[in-house]
Structure formats: structure tokens, C-alpha cells
């Protein structure tokens, strides 16, 4: 749950810039701040999504390279590593 509480800005230059922007845009301060935050939030979310997509692309590339490697010997299964009770087999 997000708490709704007033925000206090302690930097006079930021307050000045917000008031100036609100005046230039003929909008209330709250609307100017909301629009600026939502714009920046959207940019951050798109950047994050792009980063995730790039990471997934790189993982897929690695998987393709691994899949292209020659297979030597039989493929191992869980039965090769764990007994019937699910405990590791110790050599």
C-alpha cells in the first residue's frame, strides 16, 4: 500500500524551477510535477524494458552457441545424479 503524504522540497532552486515551469505552462504546480515525474518514469520503464530485452537476446545467443557445440557421450539425466529418494549420489 502506498502512503499518500505531502512532499517537501528542500532545495530552493528546484522549487524555483517548478514554480517557473508552472507559470510558463499556465498549470498548477501539482500538475507540472505530475507530468514531469510521469514522463521521467515512462522513460525509466522503457529503458528497463529495453535492458531486459537486450539481456534476454544475449542469453538466447549464448544458448544457441551452446546448442551448436558437439555432443560427446550420452546426455545425463537426474537419475545420473540423484537416487530414488532424491538424494545426491556420492561417488
Characterize the biggest β-sheet.
Answer: none
Mean pLDDT: 93
Quickly give the structural class: mainly alpha
How many helices? 2
Tell me the helix content.
55-70%
The poorly predicted ranges are none
- Give the amount of beta strand, in percent: under 5%
Shape assignment: elongated
Q: How large, in whole angstroms, is the Cα Rg? A: 28 Å
Q: Would you list the SSEs in sequence order as H and E?
A: HH
Would you report the number of β strands? 0
Cα end-to-end separation:
52 Å
Please give the structural blueprint.
Layout: H1 12-25, H2 29-67
List keywords for this structure.
mainly alpha, 2 helices, 58% helix, elongated, single chain, 91 residues
Task: Walk me through what this model shows.
By secondary structure, the protein is mostly helical. It has a domain at 12-66. The chain contains 2 helices and no strands. It is elongated, with a radius of gyration of 28 Å. The mean pLDDT is 93.
Condensed summary:
With 91 residues, this protein is an all-alpha fold.
